[in-house]
Fold these 4 entries.
Entry 1:
Amino acid sequence: IAGITQAPTSQILAAGRRMTLRCTQDMRHNAMYWYRQDLGLGLRLIHYSNTAGTTGKGEVPDGYSVSRANTDDFPLTLASAVPSQTSVYFCAISDTKGDQPQHFGDGTRLSIL
Amino acid sequence: GDSVTQMEGPVTLSEEAFLTINCTYTATGYPSLFWYVQYPGEGLQLLLKATKADDKGSNKGFEATYRKETTSFHLEKGSVQVSDSAVYFCALSGSSNTGKLIFGQGTTLQVKP
């Protein structure tokens, strides 16, 4: 999706290692989100940020942290990766109005061994 | 809390068949409703949306009507194509009006020639 860049595209990581997934947007949207997608569970919200300088916890925040130093970047950090964090991670952005859709990045496929 | 329930998949149809994917929701207030589509190896794309009761969203031959009396937003298409094979997600905007979305678990559609 134009305007949202996620990196890396995929990664294999040893358990216990630290990992940061990057998300950058150039659409100047206020809100940014991190989801994980797991088979049979759909998308679950990890953390979100309604505007630069603020963050909030989603449905499954444990083991993850985020920061929002500016409008464009919203990195997701796994401080000490565990196998249960193997998933596909999607970053999304939106206007903060409730009727506005979210726009998604192409995802990061993360495997924790 | 707010929630979305989709019909179990996978759904397998022959080309040109009629498609219905059921979606029901539970929410306080008046959420906006969305259908997203995810093609293999890609992120989610907005397919259509409806922001108030009796609204009909439509796009690419797909339609869904916001039915408040039955709390439903079923996705329909009159004649599916092989290229429609994908995972379809129903979602609603959270009652907090922050732009956060709550997703159903997704329904896989496979269309055979």
Note: Chain B touches chain A at residues 31-32, 34, 36, 42-46, 49, 51, 89, 93-94, 97-101, 103-106 (CB under 8 Å).
Entry 2:
Amino acid sequence: QKEVEQDPGPLSVPEGAIVSLNCTYSNSAFQYFMWYRQYSRKGPELLMYTYSSGNKEDGRFTAQVDKSSKYISLFIRDSQPSDSATYLCAMSPYSGGGADGLTFGKGTHLIIQP
Amino acid sequence: DTAVSQTPKYLVTQMGNDKSIKCEQNLGHDTMYWYKQDSKKFLKIMFSYNNKELIINETVPNRFSPKSPDKAHLNLHINSLELGDSAVYFCASSQVFYGANDEQFFGPGTRLTVL
């Protein structure tokens, strides 16, 4: 079993829909959870950063962490074609990644249809 | 200004060659990383480096070696390149190894193709 599981998609939804992206993990030591967005042939850029369980909202994006279920989610409201990208979940026991770096999911390829 | 930069952006080379990828960060961070993203887009840590302390992921062949001339740079040297080394390599940096509310910033990546 991989440490972080993420459905690679592709996930295709119409513009304006609510998108739900998810990851499950097995390492109970993970405390910090991130979502990165990666456009084609670009580096990952940080979208959301959360610590431990709970919700965090930033504009159209909401990140949820349920440590009891080892399950994290990213919701995108009013999705736009510019949101089309690969979304990578990442996690670590340590804030900046620590010596072991971040552990990533495989990424979900999201397509927002105009 | 680019926070984390890498050169070259593309690198095409023959099997058996030795090559280097440069990484620079202008964020004043103490910690830098190298990740490999394979053809299935899976990002995996290779090295982390902080104040002369180097942590090597056990799966990385010893043909790969990072070198840090100063705090702002962590270059990746690869000897005797193999077909399986073809991937996108990302450099990243963070403030410290174990900080509070820290995050990693990634470079744009170097796409290595070994023929």
Note: Chain A touches chain B through 28 residues (CB under 8 Å).
Entry 3:
Amino acid sequence: GAVVSQHPSWVICKSGTSVKIECRSLDFQATTMFWYRQFPKQSLMLMATSNEGSKATYEQGVEKDKFLINHASLTLSTLTVTSAHPEDSSFYICSASSGLLGETQYFGPGTRLLVL
Amino acid sequence: EDKVVQSPLSLVVHEGDTVTLNCSYEVTNFRSLLWYKQEKKAPTFLFMLTSSGIEKKSGRLSSILDKKELFSILNITATQTGDSAVYLCAASGGSNYKLTFGKGTLLTVNP
């Protein structure tokens, strides 16, 4: 149980394009979803927290107009990187939690983004 | 500012050795301490600890929390090469069960 999927797993795009990443909880309803970014050999940095049906809460230093988050249902959240630039290249990971599962966050497999 | 510090940052051992990974935390409205294992992809959940002094065990892995000293350890006995990974410690606090992660301990188990 507690499986989270992410799509796509890899994306390569040109500078200036927008990229959408989907995060789905497959066997539970995720009241809260989290988006992280991880640079090589560094730990996970929380970008934003989203609750179903409400606006995401962004961490300090994360541009909300650049990283658009939508949590439209209890099983789906999307992160759109708008006008991507090479410095946005990173490993993006989502996680999901549910009141019924307690505080444990279950992670998706991650999406590697390379912006050329 | 919430902070989680892990030590050592990296560790190289031989198969069969026992290792202890350390995690200290300073988190506002602390709720729980979580351990994850990260290989090449996203982290996989190992343990969640909420009470002091109660050891959680899963096979060769065990973990314990000290809420007075704001500290947790993860033990791995009889290490195997498959245990090679980054082990992440995270503290949950505040609203929305937000996690603050440490930088991780890179464990390498050589045959």
Note: Chain B has no helices and eleven strands.
Entry 4:
Amino acid sequence: QSVLTQPPSASGTPGQRVTISCSGSSSNIGSNYVYWYQQLPGTAPKLLIYRNNQRPSGVPDRFSGSKSGTSASLAISGLRSEDEADYYCAAWDDSLSAYVVFGGGTKLTVL
Amino acid sequence: EVQLVESGGGLVQPGGSLRLSCAASGFTFSSYDMHWVRQATGKGLEWVSAIGTAGDTYYPGSVKGRFTISRENAKNSLYLQMNSLRAGDTAVYYCARDLTDWGQGTLVTVSS
């Protein structure tokens, strides 16, 4: 069971806007930055969002991140078929049990 | 261009040991925290360990006391010594720079 909670699945049609949530606690999301990753089948995770809402160079502005309290969200607008992938959130955790925690991942299906 | 190339994975019996390596290039290795993250087949990502620029190390409870992360800045290399391996340690192991750039991973299979 993951420390950060994500919905196991999400879906949308091409052109739609989809959001994926990530829920944590005061020791992780509540007090640290949130990161989002995209993982295409058979490949390594790719950083999409860092420091809650910053995009690395090369990541389309269709992807955006936000954070409020102990929750965060990833929004994908103008959904494309190539966005079909697994998405993970992550955050540093200030508790003694872990240093970095991940969400369980959300499988995004483009219908 | 940042490159991270893992090696050292393979098949090992339960209770055995394995040492993973990660060769880094394209950046000043000594200036970055480095991590190991693993992923069992069909499962999510699990953070395994981290090492800071000063050599400080961090582990989750699931591997603490069994795994040791280290770095050799002169060789731009990151290592993960894994002892007392269990079936549950079977996964693809990724090294990552500051959790921003990731390697392609190396598969570790623990089985008799």
Note: Chain A touches chain B through 21 residues (CB under 8 Å).
